[in-house]
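REQUEST ID: PR-0412
SUBMITTED BY: lab tech R.K.
PRIORITY: routine
TASK: structure prediction, single protein chain
INPUT:
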Amino acid sequence: PKGLVVKEFDEGQGSFTIVFQKPNELVGFQIYITPHVGDTISGEIIRRDVPSGVIQDLKEEQIRPDILAATFWSEAPLTGKNREVWFIHDGHLYEFTAYAAAEDMLREVLQTLAFE
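STATUS: complete
OUTPUT:
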């Protein structure tokens, strides 16, 4: 999206974080991508990976015809309420996290996402 700066971080062991953020504002989202064995996301995985442990309104949602995701709200001390959309594609777990105010932006991005 326009106005967002992109930063990439190699997290090691085949995992990456890509951050899209408007400078000096709580506008944007991030994608954490990590290798994943299996084709489901358990509540245990989500609880383990959400540092605050705050998970609300967890549900399974067909966000596109080709993407079935776990969606929920989380909270973090620095960012407040966040929208989370997690799914598995081609052996990787994709964890999308957006500031609550950027939920619509996240949904638009997910509609244009392409895998190569």
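NOTES: The chain is about 15% helix and 55% strand.
REVIEWED BY: pending
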